[in-house]
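Support request, please re-run this one:
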Amino acid sequence: MNAPLSIGAEEYLSWLTVERGRSSNTIAAYRRDLLGWERWLGTAGADPDAVRADDLERYLEFARSEGKSAATVTRSLASLRGLFRFLYDEGAIAADPTADLQSPRLARRLPKALGEDQTLTLLNSVTGIGPLDFRDRALLEVLYGTGARISEVVGLSLADLQSDDGLVRVFGKGSKERLVPLGRPAREALGAWLSPLGRPLVAPERWAHRDDAEAVFLNTRGGRLSRQGAWGILKRHAERVGLSDQVSPHVLRHSCASHMLAHGADIRVVQELLGHVSIATTQLYTRLSSEHLRGAYESAHPRAQRNRDK
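Re-run finished. Output below.
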């Protein structure tokens, strides 16, 4: 059960959910940020009905002293900005105390990606012929083949796959819909999972929820596979082939994008495939691809080797 927040904060989260279509994961992150803020308010002697900019600065300094990363502190500030802007627009407060606060600038980090050989090793690690082996193989192939987020893949329903042109319908952030192609390995893996030897053997005699009956990927109890469950599957197979320290929930998504760009894909196509709103986000992968290209050149070209040895 969610910890209670102030009325204004709860109304803000409801507005984000209903009016802005934010995902449950996003709402949960905002709730954690606002809960941390309100807990601090209760111990810091600040007036919750008359918050000032210096109160927020004290809270951010407290968060840093607790060992929170710069990215976490910046995200917390973004959550508070949204809350106070909402309260101001609703007429609940006379002024927005975050208006003059400066956000710390963060260096944009390159997303992690596996090498192509490492990716194939991971994908080929599922070798069994049981229904859960079929499920795991299909899950990994779809994650890498589409570049979709884990939350998007576990959110797939059977109707999203029913396309004669090899496309799958994905619902991204803010419930935005996009169509992404399925390559042959992903289609074959899905076919095995959806065959009589796969999903039907995991499906229960009676569905607990209507949504479970429509889910592409099921857990061992016959319910829709959760994001955490999918991450656990990915982690388990990564550990089996010695890649656990290089795997994160988004690793196959990042690998898909990086490998496509390394093989000459147009950046706009990759942007559309991943569902990035801004091309700047996709451009991070071009930098990653360029660094990979430079590394390969320096390790293989005789002139580059000669210059490096000097």
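The chain has two domains: 7-89, 116-298. The longest strand covers residues 167-171.
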